[in-house]
Design a protein that fits this description.
By secondary structure, the chain is α+β, with helices and mostly antiparallel strands. The protein has five helices and 22 strands. Helix 2 runs antiparallel to helix 5 and helix 3 runs antiparallel to helix 4. Pfam families: BSH_RND.
Length: 417
């Protein structure tokens, strides 16, 4: 049997029904409209701010020397192996100088000839050829004097009518011939003397100087028949020439002058070789501090920019822009590294472009632009202070935000996104 509702209960149910309808309508209205996000206030205060440029590079030994064959020959002895530690002055390998000795003997013979020729020309004025020319001139003069005396006597007899005219004319012709002989002998003597002076003497001296230089050069090469370590370090294999196969160092292998045989790399001083794009080139200066890290060594190294290339590196044909070579000096590595530094290790560089011990940075969204073009932020000195418009001068971007000037510690408004 169904009981009838009392008036009190009916009124209560009606009120509940109306309240439910209103609540459902409010839920429907709120679901159809987005919620308005509120702006946030961020605390800002002076802090250490840094701006860094990231680069990648490779370690390179500062002290590295490639030893080449000083002359054509064969390897006679190899005393080291790749990777071996050597000390400065230690003999690494020796070449067979047989071919060089042949050139040395030839150079010695040429030097002796040049020395003899130079001495002969230096004493030319007292030599046999000049003495012979002088004797010829003296004989011609003596014959002329005798002929002239006979001519005088014959002319006196002719004037007295004792000799015939024909005899006088014959003697006159003879004296003229003797005068020509004296003139020719004088010219011959002058020509002979000239052979030991001027161009001939200079040529002899030049040939002597060339012979001496060649002799000294070959003797210097002979002295290098044993290649020694120019510095303390480790023996490395030199890069192959023109993409060829590396040279196998063993006795009997023929080598040519200038052929790279081996290298020695020092382990005391290192530098990093990197490249920077032209768009970042204006940020760098020589002497800037650099933090150096790498996967091959646990410790962080420190250095400074040593040099910046003045000409772009166009070795990479795939590069779209210009790149410039940068060298970074590495300070003495800390002692106790788990693994020693090795040439060719990859590195990550962080060039310290800017450091401010009391810098101010704000989130980029906090910066606003006024109608007058001035940049400002909404600022509160304290959390409950009244907000005000604060003009600022923006600077470079750092990891904490954007560096600004003209702002004190407090709170800035970051508009809701």
């Amino acid at each position: 049997m169904i009981k009838s509702l009392t008036p009190r209960r009916a009124l209560l149910l009606a009120v509940l029904a109306v309240f439910g309808v209103i609540l459902l309508r409010q839920c429907a209205d709120s679901a159809g409209q987005p919620r308005v996000a509120q702006a946030t206030w961020v605390r800002v205060e002076p802090q250490v701010l840094e701006n860094r440029l990231g680069l990648v590079g490779r370690l390179q030994a500062v002290d590295q020397v490639t030893l080449a064959a000083p002359f054509d020959g064969q390897l006679a002895e190899v005393r080291v192996a790749e990777g071996q530690r050597v000390e400065q002055g230690q003999t690494l390998l020796r070449l067979d100088p047989a071919q060089l000795l042949v050139q040395l003997r030839q150079a010695k013979a040429e030097l002796l000839k040049a020395q003899g020729e130079t001495r002969r020309l230096a004493q030319w004025a007292h030599g046999s050829e000049v003495a012979r020319a002088r004797r010829s001139l003296a004989s011609a003069r003596q014959a002329l004097a005798s002929g002239a005396s006979n001519l005088r006597d014959t002319r006196a007899l002719f004037d007295r009518g004792i000799v015939a005219r024909m005899e006088l004319e014959a003697l006159e012709q003879q004296v003229r011939n003797q005068q020509q002989d004296v003139s020719a002998a004088s010219e011959e003597l002058a020509s002979t003397l000239a052979q030991g002076q001027g161009a001939a003497r200079q040529i002899a001296e030049i040939e002597l100087a060339n012979a001496q230089a060649r002799q000294q050069a070959l003797e210097a090469l002979y002295a290098r028949r044993e290649l020694t370590a120019p510095l303390s370090g480790n023996v490395v294999r030199p890069a192959p020439q023109d993409g060829g196969k590396p040279l196998l160092l063993q006795p009997g292998v023929a080598v040519t002058q200038g052929m790279p045989l081996l290298g020695v790399v020092g382990q005391e001083r290192f530098q990093v070789l990197t490249r920077v794009e032209e768009t970042d080139l204006h940020l760098l200066r020589e002497g800037m501090p650099v933090h150096i890290s790498g996967d091959g060594f646990a410790a962080q190294l420190h250095g400074r920019i040593l040099s910046i290339g003045i000409q772009s590196d166009s070795s990479d044909p795939q590069a779209t822009g210009a790149h410039f070579e940068v060298k970074v000096s590495v300070q003495t590595p800390p002692a106790g590294l788990d693994q020693p530094l090795r040439a060719g290790m990859s590195t990550q560089l962080a060039v310290l472009l800017l450091r401010d011990e009391q810098g101010m940075a704000v989130p980029p969204q906090a910066l606003r632009q006024g109608e007058d073009g001035q940049t400002y932020v909404m600022y509160r000195a304290t959390a409950d202070a009244r907000a005000q418009r604060k003009p600022v001068v923006p600077g470079v971007a750092v990891s904490q935000g954007v560096m600004v000037q003209g702002l004190e510690a407090g709170f800035v408004e970051v508009p809701a996104s």
